């Protein structure tokens, strides 16, 4: 394996939040069958078997995360939630966020047909990468990565139907009392790319009302809205 490829893949490792001991596992996870086919027999592997394994790893990790986060959910609710989180659409979005498409090894035909942006290829490659992490360092390493990658997605979809959407409530109250919509601004961002912390400030009519901190902008906005709601409600009752 050339130094140039290793250096290139180090950027993907940084994005994923995991450094491989065996770099060849990562290469295999990124190798589409079209690339192997066009090698004329020089390359005898592709990422399909890793994808098969990664699907199982992903399922158990996501199941564990949503089970712990939602202990009052019925089995049917958990199943629907898991299906949403590990759907091709969801995995494609996560893979795009990690820039997986840039590093795929594709055959010429697949390259020309836009393979780097195909949701199915990106979703499959993401599962293959998870399997590669699992084989390289075990379940705990894979668990940590999935937890980091899915943290925002789980926050967005996991709450039950009766969960309070504080942003919507603040917007309604702001329009009713002040005739304007609240504005959210990221005022601070810290931590590595795969584990960032956002601090958001909520203002109304240019006046800062509250701040919220979270592992995603949406989480921070919700927390800021929750704090603001109490203040606006108190003002409204005076």
Structure in words:
With 238 residues, the chain is mainly alpha-helical. It folds into two domains: 9-157, Ribonuclease iii, N-terminal Endonuclease Domain, Chain A (Orthogonal Bundle); 166-237, Double Stranded RNA Binding Domain, CATH 3.30.160. Helices cover 62% and strands 10% of the residues. It has helices at residues 3-16, 23-30, 33-37, 48-69, 75-85, 88-97, 108-112, 119-137, 139-157, 166-178, 217-237, and strands spanning 183-190, 197-204, 207-214. It has a three-stranded antiparallel beta sheet with strand order 1-2-3. A hairpin with a 6-residue loop joins strand 1 and strand 2 (197-204). Helix 4 (48-69) crosses helix 5 (75-85), helix 4 crosses helix 9 (139-157) and helix 6 packs across helix 8. The relative contact order is 0.12. Mean pLDDT is 88; it is low at 159-163.
Topology:
Blueprint: H1 3-16, H2 23-30, H3 33-37, H4 48-69, H5 75-85, H6 88-97, H7 108-112, H8 119-137, H9 139-157, H10 166-178, E1 183-190, E2 197-204, E3 207-214, H11 217-237
Antiparallel strand pairs: 1-2, 2-3
Helix pairs in contact: 2-8, 4-5, 4-8, 4-9, 6-8, 8-9, 10-11
């Amino acid at each position: 394996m050339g130094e140039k490829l290793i250096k290139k893949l180090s950027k993907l490792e940084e994005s994923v939040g995991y450094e491989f001991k065996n770099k060849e596992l990562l290469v295999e996870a990124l190798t589409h069958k079209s690339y192997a086919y066009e090698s004329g027999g020089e390359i005898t592997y592709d990422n399909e078997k890793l994808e098969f394994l990664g699907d199982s790893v992903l399922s158990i990790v996501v199941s564990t995360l949503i089970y712990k986060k939602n202990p009052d959910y019925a089995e049917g609710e958990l199943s629907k939630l898991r299906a949403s989180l590990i759907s091709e659409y969801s995995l494609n979005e996560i893979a795009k966020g990690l820039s997986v498409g840039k590093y795929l090894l594709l055959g010429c035909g697949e390259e020309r047909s836009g393979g780097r942006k195909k949701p199915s290829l990106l979703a499959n490659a993401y599962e293959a990468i998870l399997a590669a992490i699992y084989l390289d360092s075990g379940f705990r390493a894979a668990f940590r990565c999935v937890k980091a990658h899915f943290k925002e997605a789980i926050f967005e979809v996991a709450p039950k139907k009766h969960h309070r959407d504080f942003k919507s409530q603040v917007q309604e109250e702001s329009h009713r009392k002040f005739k304007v919509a609240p504005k959210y601004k990221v005022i601070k961002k810290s931590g590595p790319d795969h584990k960032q912390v956002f601090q958001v400030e909520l203002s109304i009519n240019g006046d800062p009302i509250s701040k919220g901190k979270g592992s995603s902008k949406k989480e921070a906005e919700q927390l800021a809205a929750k704090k603001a709601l109490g203040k606006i409600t108190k003002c409204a009752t005076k």
